[in-house]
Design brief:
The protein is of the alpha/beta class. It has 21 helices and 8 strands.
């Protein structure tokens, strides 16, 4: 008797095959036309199984971008069409062929399109000038370096300014652009927007236009360069753009959240180039600088509303003593206190401020994935290494999923980063864990209680 052919049990049956056109329609509705046309339109369904799908993308860059920003929402949309799908994988199909002939000379109309697109997102802000930048010990060197650039172009090339979020990096590089815009061809752009124009030019087969537009600047200012990490194609183009500008003595100004040697997943040759000029940092504002900023905000308030905010010197002193605040957070606190003062129609006391700002200390804590893992394993009385192992037994799998869920909820780490911290698991495993725990938290009171207790322990230390 003949044996029947062996059928792979995980392959999907014909009646359950996804209608990819319907899925793409739902992507367009869920993400909007711009994101859909830029990133999702050309995703293809390569293979479908009962519980997961393999999707095709054009390049590694597309895969990394989609994975880090849209993967969880893509999975959510797929589950609307087929509930059993709990993970997705991406496979690089390679560059798709394009039969268009590349023009050897840039089309002036295409250059105008790029220019309009860049300016629409990156106009120089007239309010971020040298005149209204408040100088203190933490930012004095960066301020003096930025001012020097405007009088002696290419003396320090590139100028690389780094520091944490909300400390004034963008203000300084914008101020350089304002100072030079009348005498030089200034290009001011974020790394994210540079990437967007790069991808758009690839898709339209207009790379000659892209290169011509960005390499004609006398002053090239790019904000948040750390955004190019892990994007090989973009790094390649940035490297050649940098070299072209540098060779013609154009001034290059760059900002980042970290120094060049700490830009992980960035090519060594780029880090070497970025380190070759003047590297300066902006630190967290000290007490004196915070005092100056608060007093300037009070003056601005008076000029705008023709009244003095009900804040006495004691309150200004109390706010200025808050540690580890960046300038953006400090201004946010000032606005909050002033708003409460106006609503209550009375001068506030320091005790009032303590109540208003009770969440500030918790918000300033940096929560690590390691801490979440340790607290979770201790809570369930299991060994940390066992929790991170490949074993799938319920006593280990559930705490592991809870730790992944809390890592997504309490940190700013991307899904792939979280997966790597959990014994190099795939980002789709993290997505599945988050979805599972979210659902269990709604249906299971004990699960919700456990998560609340673990969260409380993590935030209380």
């Amino acid at each position: 008797m003949e044996k029947s052919p062996k059928i792979e049990k995980n392959l999907v049956s014909e009646e359950n095959i996804l209608n990819w056109n319907s899925v793409q329609d739902s992507f367009q509705k869920a993400f909007g036309s711009e994101i859909y046309s830029s990133w999702l339109k050309n995703i293809s369904l390569l293979k479908e199984f009962n519980h997961y799908v393999i999707l095709g993308v054009q390049t590694r860059f597309f895969r990394d971008w989609i994975t880090s920003r849209y993967a969880d929402k893509i999975l959510n949309e797929l589950q609307k069409h087929k509930l059993s799908i709990n993970r997705i994988e991406f496979k690089i199909e390679g560059e798709r062929s394009n039969s268009k002939t590349i023009s050897q000379k840039p089309d002036i109309n295409k250059i105008s399109d790029i220019k309009d697109g860049v300016l629409n997102y990156n106009r120089l802000n007239p309010n971020l000038s040298f005149e209204n930048f408040i100088v203190g010990k933490s930012n004095n060197l960066a301020f003096l370096s930025a001012k020097k650039i405007t009088s002696e172009l290419s003396r320090y090339n590139p100028l690389f300014i780094y520091g944490g979020v909300g400390l004034g990096k963008t203000h300084l590089i914008n101020a350089i652009g304002l100072k030079l815009k009348d005498s030089s061809n200034v290009m001011f752009i974020s790394a994210e927007r540079f990437m967007y124009q790069f991808i758009k030019s690839i898709k339209k087969n207009e790379m000659d236009t892209f290169k011509d537009f960005f390499r004609k600047a006398n002053v090239f200012i790019i904000d948040d360069i750390q955004f190019i990490r892990g994007k090989e194609g973009l790094q390649e183009e940035f490297f050649h753009t940098f070299n072209s500008l540098f060779d013609k003595s154009a001034q290059i100004i760059i900002s980042s959240d970290r120094p060049p040697n700490r830009l992980d997943r960035v090519q060594d040759r780029i880090k070497s180039r970025l380190s070759g000029g003047l590297v300066v940092d902006i630190g967290v504002p000290d007490y004196d600088l915070k005092q100056k900023i608060l007093k300037k905000k009070i003056t601005e308030f008076q000029n705008s509303f023709h009244e003095y905010p009900n804040l006495n010197e004691e309150i200004i002193d109390y706010i200025a003593k808050e540690e580890n605040l960046n300038i953006r957070e400090l201004i946010g606190i000032f606005n909050r206190v002033v708003a409460f003062s106006k609503m209550s129609k009375k001068p506030l006391s320091v005790n009032d401020c303590k109540i208003i700002l009770k969440d500030v200390h918790n918000n300033n804590k940096v929560i690590s994935i390691d801490k979440i893992q340790n607290v979770t394993s201790n809570f369930f009385s299991i060994n940390l290494q066992e929790m991170l192992s490949q074993r799938r037994s319920r006593p280990l799998a559930r705490p592991r999923q809870i730790a992944m869920y809390l890592a997504k909820k309490l940190t700013t780490r991307s899904l792939p980063e979280i997966g790597r911290k959990f014994a190099n698991r795939d980002h789709t495993t993290v997505i599945h864990a988050v979805k599972t725990i979210e659902k269990l938290s709604q249906d299971n009171s004990l699960m919700k209680k456990n998560i609340d207790e673990i969260t409380s322990i993590i935030l209380s230390d």
